[in-house]
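Hey L., structure's done. Input below.
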Amino acid sequence: MTDADLLKEAERLSALLAEQAAKHDRDTSFPEEGREAIIRSPLNTALLDGASWLSFGQSLALLSRGDASFGTVWLMHQGSGGAFRALADPAQVAFFEAEFRRGAWFG
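Output:
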């Protein structure tokens, strides 16, 4: 995906998140609809697939505009995914990358 495509996707997901953000704040619940949507989205693996840090940061800002709690958790998940790529054991790196791409979340 191009950077423009990633930002369009982040805008789409932000709108989805915004629809229920106030409800999740009131109920102190997590926006599972956002998590379900983003694990099917190329945005979730954008860093693994070579997206720029600028596009990543802009995407994070858009997601956080839709639901700040979701943006925070997604950033922790992405950071964990990056850390797993730095493991010394190539088998562990391959395992965690496959899990990440499968839709598992880390934090």
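The chain has a mean pLDDT of 94. Helices lie at 3-27, 32-39, 53-66, 68-84, 90-102.

-- N.
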